[in-house]
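User: My instructor asked us to take a sequence, write out its structure as C-alpha cells, and then describe one feature of it. I'm not sure where to start. Here is the sequence I was given:
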Amino acid sequence: MSDKTIFLLGASGFIGGHTLKRLGEDLPSYRVIALVRDINANPEKKAKVAALHPNVELVDGDLNDATLIKSYASKYPITVNVASSDHPVSVKATLDGLEEHSGSGGGGPPIYIHISGMGVISDNARGERVENIKPLSDLDYHPTKVPRTNVHLDSDIPITEAGERTVNRVRTAIVYPGWVYGEGVGAQRTTFGVRIYRALFPAAGHAGTWGPGENQMTSVHVVDVASAITTLLKAMLEGRADEGKDGHCKSHFVLSEQPLYTMKDFTAAFGDALYKHGELKEGGSKPFPPSITDQMGDLGWCSLGGNQIGSADRLRKLGWEPVESRKISVFESMPLELEVAFQAAPVLETAPGERKQQTL
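Assistant: Let's start with the prediction itself. The C-alpha cells for your sequence are:
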C-alpha cells in the first residue's frame, strides 16, 4: 500500500481523540485527514484536535456530508470511523467511496475499520438478572446471528456485506468496545455514558436503570480502545489479521478483564457522586419510570437493559492486551471522569431521540 494516508471520522470525539493520538504514536509514517464538524468556526476545538497528531489535516464537515465523505473515502486506501456506531448515511457514503477506490484498481482493496458496540449481543433481558451466561467469543460472532432488533446492525450489516463481496471488495473490520470509560484527550474529554446519565438523572430526579438493573456489562478503558484500533490496523497492513479468503476481516470485541458489574451498582455509584455534587436530591439508584425509558424506546432497553458479556479473542491473537484497564477499573475511574465533567459544558451534545448516533 504505497499511499500512507488515513481518512479519519470522529477525531474530535471521546474515542476519536485517543485514536488520533495513538495513530501518531503507532503509525508515525502515516498522515491523517480528519473530518471534524464546525472546525473552522471553532479555533479552540481546531487547536485541540490538531495537537494530537504531528501530521494531520483537518477537513470541515459532518457525518451527513455524504458527498464529501464519499469523495475522501474514494481517494485514500484506509478509512477509520470512530465517530458513530449508528449513522447509516455516513456508512453508505464511506462504502460507496471505498468501493469506487477498489474498482479503480490502484493499490489493492482499501481498508475500512468501523466502531460499533457490544449492544449488538444484548439479550434484551429488560434489566433482569440472568444466571450463568457464557461469554460470547468474537470468534463465534456474526451480525446475522443476533436479533435483528438489536442496536448497531443497520450499520454493521452493510459493512459486513461489503467485506464479503468478491467484486470491488473492501477489507472491512468492525470493533466492538464494551462500556468505555476513562478521561478523553483533545476536544471531548467526557465519555458518552457520563454525558447521557448526567442528562437523564436530573430529569428523573434520581439515578436509575432500565428495569431492576440486574443486567451485567463488560468494560474497557478508552486508551485500550484506541490501542485495539491501531493494533488491528497494523495487523491488516502486515497481512496478519484474521481475514477470510474474500478479504473480510472479522469482528473484534474490545473488552477488559475487569469483573462484570450490574447497571444497578454502576448507576448507584454514579447517583451517589451526583448527589454529593448537588446535581441530585438523593443518592443511590432505582428503576426509571416509563417517562424516562420511553424516550429511547427499544434502543435504551437493548443498550442499557440487557446483558452484554463477551470475550475479546481475535485481538488477543494479534497481541493486544487491555493494559490501561488493568491499571484502573470503571469504578475507580468514575470520580476522575466526573471531576472533568463537572468542569465541562454542555452536559450532553444530543437529544434523547438522537442518541442512536452514539456508540453505546
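For the description part of your assignment, you could build on this observation: Residues 222-238 form the longest helix (17 residues). Try explaining in your own words what that tells you about the chain.
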